[in-house]
Structures are given as C-alpha cells and as structure tokens.
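// run 5 | inverse folding | seed 20
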C-alpha cells in the first residue's frame, strides 16, 4: 500500500488514476492534494497546457527529454503533430508490453524491458524507448516465462475487455505483433494532445 501512495498523490494532482491500485484512492479523494486541493481556482492558459503535458508524460512514464524528443519528431512529420506524438509514444516497447497485457502497469512494463525479459523478433531488447515497427513481434524470453509476473500475465490477468486493434496478441504464448501504426482514437490515454502541442510551440 505504501508504494502506491506517491502514485496516488500524483494521480490526484493530474486528475487521472495512473495505476489500477490508484483508482480507489483517486475515487475517494478526486481533487488535488494539499490544503488548497478543494479550492476552485481558474487555472491560467499556461497551467492548463502544462497539466496536459504532465498527464501525457506520466501515462507513458517518460522523462521531459524523451517527451520533447518525441514532440520534435512529430513536429517534423507530415501528419497532425498531436496525433503523431501520441502514436510515437504508443509504439515504444514498454507501452506495447503494457497494451498487450504482458504487464499490469507502465511501471511494471518498463521494468520488464529494462531487466531483459522482453524480446523483439526473438532478440532481447532492454531499452524501454525502443520504437517497435509494424510486423515486429514482441514476446517474453523463454528463460523468463516461468517467473510469477509472466505466469499471471499468461493467465490473462492484465488483458482488458478491449484489445488494442493495432496489436495481434497471443496472451497464452506471451507474444504480440504490431500490425500497423495506431490511430489516435484507438489509443487509451487521457490527454488533449493539442494542448501539449501548444505548450511546446509557445
């Protein structure tokens, strides 16, 4: 319980539960932490955009440098900057490990990758920010499959009611294939990405 407290506090500050365990804390106290948490203050335009950027950053558990780098790449692309930004974050290896149901939270997904439990096309990849390309196959290393977290995942404990349509998942086999680039409407993150674009473009 203690480990989830900081994330619960952060969830309240951002207005979104960051992990399944945080949901009960967030629902019980759905306002920012601190003595002024319940106060109704009209935020400035800067604060609104900053909050949205922080929300996106937290949901993917990325650093400011990583988010800025993704924004710069999206800004250079031909598509709509906000949509491309979220799609770039969604095709990070740790994000897809989470979305495939191989981990319970983005934090657990990042740890699984960093500790060398995850493969891409059969080769170990321990870089959470690794960009997965369409038709690449992610999976759990043979040597790691017997570990309790992956046994729990193989039983379908982390698979949501709706599988990401851009992934083909064999949860029992602990593998998933990225079929195509995800569309923004398919990506389950809570964010007005246009405000993030405006934050970085100011």
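// decoded
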């Amino acid at each position: 319980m203690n480990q989830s407290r900081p994330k619960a506090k952060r969830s309240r500050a951002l207005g979104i539960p960051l992990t399944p365990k945080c949901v009960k804390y967030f629902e019980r106290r759905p306002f920012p932490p601190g003595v002024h948490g319940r106060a109704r203050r009209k935020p400035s335009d800067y604060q609104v955009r900053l909050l949205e950027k922080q929300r996106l950053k937290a949901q993917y558990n990325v650093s400011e440098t990583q988010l800025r780098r993704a924004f710069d790449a999206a800004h250079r692309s031909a598509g709509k900057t906000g949509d491309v930004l979220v799609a770039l974050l969604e095709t990070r290896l740790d994000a897809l490990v989470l979305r495939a149901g191989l981990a319970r939270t983005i934090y657990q997904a990042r740890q699984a990758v960093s500790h060398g439990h995850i493969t891409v096309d059969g080769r170990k990849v321990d870089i959470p920010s690794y960009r997965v390309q369409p038709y690449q196959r992610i999976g759990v290393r043979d040597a790691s499959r017997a570990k309790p977290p992956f046994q729990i995942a193989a039983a379908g404990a982390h698979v949501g009611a709706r599988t990401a349509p851009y992934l083909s998942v064999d949860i029992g086999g602990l593998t998933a294939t990225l079929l195509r680039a995800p569309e923004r409407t398919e990506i389950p993150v809570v964010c007005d990405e246009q405000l993030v674009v405006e934050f970085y473009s100011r």
